[in-house]
Structures are given as C-alpha cells and as structure tokens.
Amino acid sequence: MSMHATAVRAEAVGRVFRTPAGEVRACADVTLTARAGELVVVRGPSGSGKTTLLNLIAGLDRPSTGRVVLAGVDTSTASEEQLLALRRERVGFVFQSFGLLPVLTASENVEVPLRIQRVAAEERSARVAEALAAVGLDAHAGQRPAELSGGQQQRVAIARALVVEPALLIADEPTGQLDSQTAAAVMDLVVDIVHRRQIAAVVATHDPLLVERADRVLTLHDGAVVDEAVGPFRAPLSAP
Ligand SMILES: Nc1ncnc2c1ncn2[C@@H]1O[C@H](COP(=O)(O)OP(=O)(O)OP(=O)(O)O)[C@@H](O)[C@H]1O
Hints:
The protein has helices at 50-57, 80-90, 106-116, 121-134, 150-162, 180-197, 208-213, and strands at residues 6-19, 22-35, 39-43, 65-70, 73-74, 91-95, 168-172, 200-204, 216-221, 224-230.
C-alpha cells in the first residue's frame, strides 16, 4: 500500500432511519476521505450522527444515498459475505466500552480475530505477542479484563484491533470511560500507531486533546458536516 492510499471514502452519504414516529435523517450528504497514516476526528453533539457515520464507513451499515468505498469495495453493491470479510480483515474496531470477553485473558482476547480468520497457531501467538508489545502490555498477557485497569483494558482492545493489520481503525469515543490522564496516554498510543503503521483512523470523540492531534476534524450537526478543519500538526506536503 502506498503512503497515501485511501482506506475509506464516503461520497455524499446519507442515511435515513424509518421509525414509528417518522423518518430520521441521521446522516445527510457527508463526504469524508481517510488515507493511510491519517487521523480523522468526527465530533458533534449527542445525536448528531457520529455513530451512524462510523457504522457506514466501517461497512456495518449501508447508506440510503451516496456511497462508501472501503478498501476499494463499494459497500452498497457488496454482498453480506463480502462486507463481513471486509470488516474482519480490513477494519479494526475500538469502542468506549472496550468490548473485551471477561473470561478470556488479554492475549486470548487479542487472539480472537485471528482464530476467526483461521490463522495457524504459531503465527497467532507471534502476532498476539507483537500486538500486546505494541501497546505496552507484554507483562499483562495472562490477566483477565477484571484484573486490568481501564486504560489497560482499552489498550488490549487496541491490540485486538491492530492484530488483523487493518487498513482502517474505527474508534467510537475510545476514551469516554477513562480519566483524563489515562485518556491522554491512550490517545498518544492511538496517534503513534496511526502514524507508525500508516493506518487510517476515524475517531468519534469530544476529547480536545485528540482533536488537537487530528489531521482533519469534521463537526456534525443533525447528521450534516457543519465544519471541516485541517489540523495544525499535519506535516506540510512539500517538507524540505
Ligand atoms: N437504528 C436507528 N433507528 C432509528 N433512529 C436511529 C437509529 N440509529 C440512530 N438513530 C438516530 O439517528 C440520530 C443520530 O444518532 P447517532 O447515534 O449516530 O448520534 P451520535 O452523534 O453518535 O450520538 P451520541 O454522541 O449520543 O452517541 C439520532 O437522532 C438517533 O436517534
């Protein structure tokens, strides 16, 4: 993959939900591109459509209008099987609630996506060890989620997202349950991983520290982009 490969592109995407109370336009005419090594932050008040947009670009949901091209595949015309494979192999997910399985150890949690992909045992253990080391948790591999701090649990979730070597990392309020100091450490880790591994990341967050580090910030209101800003820390394209 080249340095600036497009991991996902949403083109004039809309999503309408039909409810007993009528139609809800959760996403309206949103265009967004996330390239390898880029951190895109999506922010906006509660109900502004952040989760809806993340679901669309991650291939968990399909748009009502417009299109999403994820790892080169148009999600509107892809089959359910293709979408499932795309999500498993190309997308890493991190959620506010961590989503770890409580009976499994940290390394077993990280191993789950590789088991689903039927990766051989020897390769699995090498990749799990590498992913846990990348998030600084090698010493905690045998501990269950309840035996880890919130920040450590979120780092396990990040390792689980990374172990598939995704083109796209999707994170929905990843630091929402963490105290500010732990949140800052987790955000540093995410930013470092995005840049070092050249993964495209789209993160829904209110956290000003992450907004500050973003390459692009989209602000949503009632499903529509009301502001789009280029981050101050983006390296100039023609750096000497
Ligand atoms: N499956 C659904 N069916 C009907 N309406 C939905 C559905 N999913 C979301 N909505 C509506 O779409 C709008 C956007 O919701 P969404 O969850 O995307 O917002 P959000 O910005 O992620 O909010 P929060 O910050 O509170 O998580 C809301 O009005 C919500 O009620």
